[in-house]
Amino acid sequence: MSIKEKYIKSSKLDNLIGSIVFFANKNSEIKNISTLLNPSQKTLFKKNLKNNSKKKEIFSFDISHNQKIIIYSLQNDKNSFEKSGAKLYDFFKNENLTKVHIFGDTIDVSDNIKCLHQLVHGMKLKSYSFDKYLTKKNSQVIDLNILSKKKVDLNLVKKFSAIENGVKFTKDLVSEPGNILHPDEYAKRINKLKKIGLKINVYNTSKLKKMKCNALLGVGQGSSRGSYIVTMEWRGNKKQKKPLAFVGKGVCFDTGGISLKPARFMEDMTYDMAGSAVVVGLMKSLALRKARVNAVGVVGLVENMVSGNAQRPGDIVRSYSGKTIEVLNTDAEGRLVLADAITFTEKKFKPSFIIDLATLTGAIVVALGSEYAGLFSNNDKLSKQLYNAGEKVDEKVWRLPLHENYDKLMNSKNADMQNINYVGGAGSTTAAQFLQRFIINKTPWAHLDIAGMAFSKYAGSLNSSGATGYGVRLLDKFVEDNYE
């Protein structure tokens, strides 16, 4: 069920038909309600509030044949209103409610209108579904009227709308099947973002060969599809000299190559481009909300397939940086894509920092599950900024170590390095150590391993099952708090 919201001036209860939402505070009181109700309605409200003996967070009762009252008990002052909105959406969906009025003035907090906008934001994030290929779709719409005496904060509405668009675009990309969103199609979709003000450059297979991006090209050489680096530039601050840089792994389908993955769950490898999708969704959000920063997004797009032309275990390739890599395992392909994309980004754009995102290792899922993304960085300030932003939007990161002793595990006898650590252990850390070797000029850098966060079999607090969109809100908040 999708949501169509409208902000209108507050009205008396008698004038409304449908489901009507009020908010009770931690003392089970409903602020500003006296002017909305007649005496008999007040009595009915008090009786039902008192009868909520099980202290349900959300409960409802009928006040007439065409009016259902919903009471949401906001139990503490630190309540996440985005999460509250998501819970409300679930209630509406489960009850099949399509005509809803929300009395925003009953939210008993000082910054009332901001919390109201956050609530609606949470509802819209939660309402996402990917039904593009279903012949029978749920076409129902929740007609949402938001009633308040206070003025709508249009800037906040526009900002939230931009984030919602970015998150949705990321989820759409991650949800597409591999036969539809192959590298050729992906590059075309990104190119369409020119219309919202992004400068797009597409480096195709031919250009990448001239640039000697052989690490990335080696991953894609077994596919009939092209391989690409695509750049997205947003210029929102004329005074800012160095752009912020975000780099994403875009392996549109990962068979593992000749180091073939097990057949079970291989269908999930359509999600191996989620890091790139986060970068694309973030850049769309920044452009739509006209962020006051200069930022660049860079994505490496490939398909890791098995064929007579596929890369072999034992192959040695020379990366864009000039460093050579012995490919011991063709299923450790994401780091090869990022290696060239990271060095290219540093050399071309000379950014103030680089943050890369990738569904890089299964080891990070073993370590952190689906609660935190793994954070690896050469810079304490950048790490702290990412951690703080993650805590604010509940897209959490946890910093893990880098050390020269781990780095030695990636040394090769036959090349400058190998692409996998066969000694065993520390799989996520050694992958990050590999990536760090492609930061040539000591640029502040952070790597986010989002393998446990990009996709969920179960619904989360702000998302349905499937693609989560993790990372867009995190990085948008990171940019807003530290660089605007």
Strand content bin: 15-25%
Uncertain segments? none
Instruction: Give the CA-CA distance, first to last residue.
Output: 35 Å
Strand order, largest beta sheet: 7-8-10-9-13-17-14-15
Number of helices: 14
Number of self-contained structural domains: 2
CATH superfamily of the largest domain: Zn peptidases
Overall pLDDT score: 94
Question: Care to describe what's here?
Answer:
The protein has 484 residues and is an alpha/beta fold. The chain folds into 2 domains: 2-152, Leucine Aminopeptidase, subunit E, domain 1; 160-483, 3-Layer(aba) Sandwich (Aminopeptidase), CATH 3.40.630.10. Helix content is 34%, strand content 22%. The protein contains 14 helices and 19 strands. It has helices spanning 39-50, 81-95, 112-126, 154-175, 183-191, 205-211, 214-220, 274-288, 334-349, 363-368, 380-393, 404-407, 427-436, 472-483, and strands at residues 2-8, 18-24, 58-64, 67-73, 99-103, 141-147, 199-203, 228-235, 244-254, 294-304, 315-318, 324-327, 353-358, 373-377, 397-399, 417-418, 445-449, 455-456, 466-467. An 8-stranded mixed sheet has the order 7-8-10-9-13-17-14-15, with helices on both faces. It has a 6-stranded mixed sheet with strand order 1-6-5-2-4-3, with helices on both faces. The protein has a 3-stranded mixed sheet with strand order 11-12-16, covered by helices on one side. A hairpin with a 5-residue loop joins β11 and β12. α7 packs antiparallel against α9 (334-349) and α11 (380-393) packs across α14. The chain is elongated, with a radius of gyration of 25 Å. The mean pLDDT is 94.
